[in-house]
Specification:
globular; 15-stranded mixed beta sheet; single chain; 21 helices; five-stranded antiparallel beta sheet; alpha+beta
Length: 756
């Protein structure tokens, strides 16, 4: 029996490994493929060409990437169109957009299938290999393979390689609200990235129920679906929109997102390059596109809307499992009834004692509290010990995976050690507490977070284990592992996913989930005589991995530190400053701020995480011209004052941001594009951001109460600090990269104009 338990334990560990390994296809370089198959190697050639240099809107590489995509589509025999125009999206971010469009004509007149990804990279240093060069490459290679079959689809297939996604979903906004083809679209497949590796998650965008979308997705039969209704429920709560969101919100068009999030530390950085893109991840994107393209190019896309929702989750072999929301409460009540009946049965069989049941709550509560606190304070502890990590604004460090292993090992040590102290309590009595807790969790999610209602499935395994342990003193360990498989296969990937996707500050999700998974496997763990030895094994792993994480905590050429440097000239005060967002300076930027640096909390310009400057120091004055401001119109009509201002750069710039004093602006246009009333009502002090192409001017038309005094503060920036001839900034060392999400390597001028 001892050897059986040991072998069963090894099978359990193998199941944990399988829960991760089964999520993605394999990749072999130089694999021979037919012309009609998706080739990862051919897609990689596209990625290489698309990511030779940063190519944000307004940057030199942007035009080169656009030309490459157009040439590749034309080489396939497709007529290519470019949709150009200004748009400010929903966020007040103006840019000139150049969307790339092509269309494959279908044999029938139904709705069209639209393939979507964006080709601009994030300003200013990202090479955009993953985000979203991988998506563009997936579509180019997938369309090539599809066309090689020489079959005519029933539905039109529209290819939209959008622009300016990184600036506010502007390309999608221009297409959805201005292009005649949008009325033909029935379904969108959007390919995205928020890292450079890992499994690609399928996320549904719908305004109604997901029932028909899930049904059709399963009919398309992709081989490696990674999806669950909990992730989309969380996704909808977060401010992480994609181009597909514009289709859903503005045109009521539904679709599927496919996005990967591992190696989050590469996101929007200079490390988002060809070399670091996970080849298996690109294969995973292709494994979605090809069956979906084949299926939806012939499917009826006019009837995808549904009022019914489904709970869904992926499992090996079964792929995507789903069932209607109507089953949620019956399944819960079945679990609750089973729990009550098992209580009666256990007392009748004299396997349960009330005092032992109550004592069985103690180890569960102890492990949850200890592991919850450890996870909650994880990021605070890490950044206290390694303050440089505060400069990784993603909140996920290069050794982040090791930290996950460290804290999971600690959580397992706490679980095994604590339950070993309560080993005199029989397993049936220990199982009542986790069964009750998981019933409460399932009841709460059934009411508040229906997408997570598949949590009831692993609970059934726990209740079945309780039934077996009530009836058998030494149950078969392989049976106990089998009953734990749903919990292992469903929850194990979550333990990694939450801190990877949301940052190490969410390590509490990993430690608590580890604890909750442990108690689901308690029917097997409860019969192990080696819980004490396993506790010390995981304690050893905790220390060993902790040492490993410390060794990996330094910054070097492979793990470069994000750093920032700005030159700020205030034309109103005629003062110049060096500025940085860094918490811990390097020698590179420290030479400019040095001993004279002083703390500041200024937010010079908007950023993803509302990051504020940390230090400034006086800088020598340089001849940096502020923009020319021309008041074209200033008049009063009724109780409103109307002004028109034209702002023209006097130097090569990339970005203009306009802030106002607290004045109620009732209407505004920028380069003749109106800003939405909703945005104006919720904008705080920022009026707009113009991401400038070709050094274009910015024209403002504003309407506000005639008795108000309006102040416009202009922040004009160029990302040329390291190359500007008036400065002698040394090249950034190889152990550092530009800090993402903030204005960086930039020369910025500040100028205020007042309208009395």
């Amino acid at each position: 029996m001892k050897s059986s338990r040991t072998f069963a334990l090894l099978l359990l560990f193998a199941a944990v490994y399988w829960s991760f390994d089964s999520l993605m296809p394999s990749y072999k370089p130089d694999k021979e493929t037919t012309s009609s198959e998706f080739s990862v190697d051919r897609a990689l050639e596209h990625v290489r060409e698309l990511s030779k240099e940063p190519h944000a809107v307004g940057f030199p590489g942007h035009g080169d990437v656009k030309k490459y995509i157009i040439s590749e589509l034309k080489e396939m025999g497709l007529e290519t169109l470019v949709q150009e125009g200004y748009t400010a999206g929903d966020w007040g971010n103006l840019s000139k957009v150049s969307n790339i469009l092509a269309r494959i004509e279908g044999s029938e007149k139904g709705k069209a299938l639209l393939l979507l990804s964006h080709y601009d990279s994030s300003p200013h240093s990202s090479f955009g290999a993953s985000d979203a060069g991988s998506g563009v490459a997936t579509i180019l290679e997938g369309v090539r393979a599809f066309l090689s079959e020489n079959r005519v689809p029933k539905n039109d297939i529209i290819i939209l390689i959008s622009d300016a996604e990184e600036l506010g979903l502007n390309g999608a906004d221009l297409f959805v609200n201005n292009h005649p083809w949008v009325k033909d679209v029935g379904l969108v497949l959007n390919f995205e990235a928020r890292g450079s590796g890992g499994p690609s998650y399928m996320l549904i965008e719908t305004n109604r129920g997901n029932g028909n979308l899930i049904k059709e997705f399963k009919n398309a039969n992709p081989q490696y679906p990674v999806a669950n209704s909990l992730v989309y429920s969380i996704y909808k709560m977060l401010p992480n929109d994609t181009d597909l969101t514009v289709f859903r919100e503005d045109a009521d068009i539904e679709g599927f997102n496919f996005a990967f999030i591992d190696d989050h530390f590469d996101y929007h950085t200079a490390l988002d390059n060809y070399e670091r893109l996970d080849r298996k991840t690109l294969a995973h994107q292709g494994s979605y596109l090809m069956p979906l393209l084949s299926y939806f190019s012939d499917a009826d896309l006019d009837n995808l809307k549904s009022l019914n929702d489904e709970v869904y989750y992926n499992l090996p072999f079964y792929k995507l499992v789903s069932y209607p929301f109507e089953w949620i409460w019956p399944m819960f009540f079945f679990g609750a009834l089973s729990f009550v009946l098992l209580l009666f049965w256990g007392f009748k069989k004299k396997q349960l004692e009330l005092s032992h049941i109550l004592k069985g709550f103690l180890p569960m509560l102890i492990t949850l509290v200890v592991n919850g606190l450890a996870g909650y304070f994880c990021w605070s502890i890490i950044t206290w010990w390694y303050p440089d990590f505060k400069d990784m604004l993603h909140g996920f460090t290069y050794n982040g995976y090791t930290y996950i292993a460290v804290f999971v090992s600690f959580a397992l040590f706490v679980c095994f050690y604590t339950y070993n102290q309560f080993r005199r309590i029989s397993t049936p009595n220990l199982l009542i507490a986790p069964s009750f807790l998981w019933l409460v969790i399932c009841g709460l999610v059934a009411h508040y977070l229906k997408g997570a209602s598949f949590f009831i499935i692993p609970l059934y395994g726990l209740l079945a284990g309780l039934l077996v342990t009530i009836n058998q003193k030494e149950p078969n360990p392989f049976l106990m592992v089998f009953l734990a498989l749903p919990a292992v296969l469903i929850y194990s990937p979550f333990i990694k996913m939450f801190p990877v996707g949301l940052g190490l500050k969410m390590m509490v999700a990993a430690t608590v989930l580890t604890t909750l998974l442990f108690v689901l496997i308690l029917p097997f763990f409860g019969q192990l005589k080696s819980k004490g030895r396993l506790a010390y094994l995981f304690l050893f792993l905790f220390f060993a991995l902790g040492i490993t994480s410390h060794v990996q905590s330094d910054f070097n050429e492979e793990r470069p530190k994000p750093s920032s440097l700005l030159y700020v000239y205030d034309a109103d005060k005629e003062s110049s400053l060096w500025a940085t967002y860094d918490h811990v300076l390097m020698d590179w930027n420290g030479q400019f701020l040095g001993d004279d640096k002083r703390e500041t909390s200024a937010e010079t310009i908007s950023s993803k995480y509302r990051t504020r400057l940390n230090y400034v120091a006086d800088a020598p004055k340089k001849n940096i011209p502020a923009p020319y401001i021309d008041t074209v119109l200033d008049t009063i009509i009724g109780d409103k004052r109307h002004i028109e201002v034209c702002i023209t750069p006097k130097r090569n710039v990339n970005r203009l941001e306009v802030f106002t004093n607290p004045v109620a602006i009732s209407a505004a246009k920028v380069n003749r594009i109106p800003l939405s009333t909703y945005y104006l009502e919720h904008r705080r002090n920022k009026l707009l951001t113009h991401y400038i192409s070709n050094n274009d001017f910015t024209e403002l038309q504003l309407e506000f109460p005639k008795d108000s005094v309006l102040e416009l503060t202009l922040y004009e920036a160029s990302n040329d600090l390291l190359t500007h001839p008036d400065f002698s900034i040394p090249e950034r060392p190889k152990n550092s990269i530009p800090m993402p999400f903030v204005l960086n390597d930039a020369i910025m001028t500040i100028k205020t104009v007042r309208f009395e």
